[in-house]
Structure of RNA polymerase sigma factor:
Amino acid sequence: MNTVPEAFAAWVSPHLPAMARLAARLAPDADRDDVVQEALVRAWTKRHQYDDRRGSPSAWLLAITADQARKARSRVTKSSRLLSTVDSGKSAPVSDDGVDLRRALAQLTDRQRLAVDCVYFAGLSVAETAAVMRCAEGTVKSTLSDARAKLRVLLEVIS
């Protein structure tokens, strides 16, 4: 990879929308742009570690974004514990048919939520998701299957 800042910017530019979507999904309470910026700084400092034989630029950048989103989510959680907040009485939006997808997704394990976010919200393939999650493709498929089964139960609406 070229180490000229302009070349790096051109190299990451096509991947910025996917990085922003993944950051927003994985760390909804953090500033999406901050997460992406931190991921870009990390990618720049680690650019010599990128190996195209191990995965696409997109998968490498999204793996970094996922890691930075996890760190941002942890910071937000810690800071929210420090602040004593008053319950505003607002609840998460629920669709007309009673389905609360946000609450159901929150009940998935972190690994299941990452797999669902990568595949269904960021539009990554199973192979790219495996690179982001740093696991085998079979693990991604299994994790998605488990997540769908859990969501099926959580989202079951009695008609």
About this structure: The radius of gyration is 17 Å. Residues 79-97 have pLDDT under 50 and may be disordered. The longest helix spans residues 57-82. The CA atoms of residues 45 and 149 lie 40 Å apart.
